[in-house]
Amino acid sequence: MGAVGVLATFVLAACGGGENSRSEGQQNLCATLKTLRSALTQVGDLDPKTASTADIEAAADQVRTARKQVDEAAKAVSFQEVDAVTLSATRLVTAVNHVPAGTSPNVELQQIQPALHASEDQFESVYNGLSCGTAP
After folding, report:
1. What totals of helices (H) and strands (E) does the chain contain, helices first?
2. I need a surface site. Which of 43, 89, 107, 116 has the fewest CB within 10 A?
3. How far is CA 104 from CA 57, 75, 95, 113, in A?
4. pLDDT tens across 30-62, in order?
């Protein structure tokens, strides 16, 4: 299981319990973080052998949309630590946007891997501090 798969397992376990003890705002934040996790997973799951540039750009668009949702949900509960997650997701989208036109999808995926891993790491770090739960 790759880093994204581990991240997906971590997030599902972390947000899964304790919903009665969380405010509606916190629950919404957890839900938007799950959406962001899903978008990051889609980027990580792209197969360099079959992915097209359009596939990569579409996955980056999903990260961008999910990042905006997390940012709005975080503002509602004044959870400033989420800024690190949204910033790293923005950097991932920027990395995709800065790959030169005509770059093969395989090379493009290789070039964005550092930004993807940084996003995953930031996500995990922030998620550990949320009342959504903790990693098993």
Report:
1. 5, 0
2. 107
3. 13, 38, 15, 14
4. 888 889 889 989 999 999 899 999 999 999 999
Q: Which domain holds residue 45?
A: 3-129
Kindly state the tokens that stand for 124. 């995990």
The total of structural domains in the chain comes to 1
Phi, psi of 78 (to 5 degrees): 55, 45
- End-to-end Cα separation, the chain, in angstroms: 17
Looking up tokens 């990693």 gives 135
**Are the CB atoms for 36 and 70 separated by under 8 Å?**
yes
Do the domain assignments include residue 135?
A: no
Q: What type of residue sits at position 125?
A: S
